[in-house]
């Protein structure tokens, strides 16, 4: 005999899984690079020029994501992608441009609607 009933929590669990899969460090990095450019351009006298190297470090000091962001905003990860865990946040993002200027940004939490590539 087969149980065809789906539990009450099944739908919630599936939606949670879908949201978690939509969040990835690659998506976060793409959105973060765009957002960072908005912060950098207006106030700085020094020119900020792509491509960028981005490193995301979790709250324990472990590198959880590393990538290159091209002039067009394309994110190319270095190494294997790690799964996002809420324990990684708050995290620190280090953005280094082609003139080797490094800027530091705080990521307080992963936003579930980060879907930029």
For this structure, what is the CATH class?
Answer: Mainly Beta
CATH topology: Immunoglobulin-like
Compute the number of structural domains. Answer: 1
Provide the residue-averaged pLDDT.
74
State the major sheet.
5 strands, antiparallel
Coarse morphology:
globular
Structure summary, number of beta strands: 5
Low-confidence stretches: 113-117
Run of helices and strands:
HHEEEEE
Looking at the overall shape, the CATH architecture is Sandwich
Span between termini: 45 Å
Helix content: 25-40%
The tally of helices reads 2
Question: Descriptors for this entry?
Answer:
24% strand; 2 helices; Immunoglobulin-like; 117 residues; alpha+beta; 5-stranded antiparallel sheet
Q: What features would you describe in this structure?
A:
The chain is α+β, with helices and mostly antiparallel strands and 117 residues long. It has a single domain (25-107), classed as Immunoglobulin-like (Sandwich). 29% of the residues lie in helices and 24% in strands. It has helices spanning 8-22, 25-43, and strands at residues 52-57, 63-69, 75-77, 91-96, 102-107. A 5-stranded antiparallel beta sheet has the order 3-2-1-4-5. The chain starts with 7 loop residues before the first helix and ends in a 10-residue tail after the last strand.
Write the layout of secondary structure elements.
Layout (H helix, E strand, L loop, with lengths): L7 H15 L2 H19 L8 E6 L5 E7 L5 E3 L13 E6 L5 E6 L10
Structure, briefly:
By secondary structure, this protein is α+β, with helices and mostly antiparallel strands.
